[in-house]
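pls ignore typos typing on phone
NAP + seq
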Amino acid sequence: MKVLITGGSGLIGKVLTQSLEVAGHEVAILTRRLDSKSTVTQYLWNPYRKEIDADALSDVEAIIHLAGANIAEKRWTKKRWEEMYSSRVDSAQFLYKKVKEYKIPLKSFISSSAIGWYGAGTSQEVFTEESQCADDILGALSLAWESAADLFADLGCSVSKVRTGIVLTNGGGALPKMTKPILMGIGSPLGSGKQYMPWIHVDDICAVYVHLLDQQLPAGVYNGVAPESITNADLTRLLAKVLHRSLWLPNIPSFVLKLIFGEMATILLNGSRVSANKLIENGFQFKYPKTLEALEEIYGN
Ligand SMILES: NC(=O)c1ccc[n+]([C@@H]2O[C@H](COP(=O)([O-])OP(=O)(O)OC[C@H]3O[C@@H](n4cnc5c(N)ncnc54)[C@H](OP(=O)(O)O)[C@@H]3O)[C@@H](O)[C@H]2O)c1
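k done
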């Protein structure tokens, strides 16, 4: 199948491109900047300026929408927040208009979403795909993001949304940021350490996308998280164990993280459990269901 990935140059996109090619798909990516070193077919777009290389959509059967300004990269100023929103929502709406205008017979639109759907809170609730969208900024972003994906249903194609947890890989993202202080001997849990950190190994999140594309998973909404829940304190301890380091410092107080990261600290200090049951009930087999196995694979133990 000819597949187009928005944001295909990113952390998940790079690994997903390989997984899709191994599964026999023809992959191209949409990017704002061509990379001369990349071996994948690239097409330029600029969703802000409503520009896209028309060839990108020719014969495309499926689109995987991963584009989005990184949530954890910069402080959440008003301008950054607009960028995080527009790069996910306006970009999907723009693609929808183009697919409609060019009458592309798209079979499948699969969008990333995030566990932010369930909000930035710590509770004892275990959220399922049926749980309501939270009434906070992360919930609102996720709702708009998923609603933009739903537009594609009008075009007669199947729509899926993957509410992704923290993707574990040493290629970037959250894990290297957690690992660095531990390797320097100054690692410690964040805040109370009791907040949950729903996670998924990068190979498993890519397998979810491949299974949705190949219809081994029925289209719909899925939580892209591993079955094992873990708190920030336990994950920090497990990481230290896998890296053969010890933890000796007290937890980093919440107010320090708020001073450093501003409002963005909310995603470090809060988190609830998110259920992987829908994936499992639909026959998805996790390669890394347990945190220790995932970390040992990543760090080569
Ligand atoms: N990684 C995680 O832990 C995680 C967790 C939950 C959800 N997700 C979601 O999954 C998706 C992919 O994640 P990822 O970790 O692969 O992200 P990533 O490494 O930050 O890459 C995202 C891609 O989006 C494009 N992009 C960035 N800023 C943009 C902007 N302002 N306008 C348009 N495009 C922009 C970039 O592609 P170009 O520069 O080539 O245009 C970039 O390579 C994202 O939507 C993310 O929110 C990720």
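Residues 7, 9-13, 31-33, 47, 66-71, 83, 87-88, 91, 112, 114, 164, 166-167, 173-174 surround NAP (CB under 6 Å). Residues 78-101 form the longest helix (24 residues). more later
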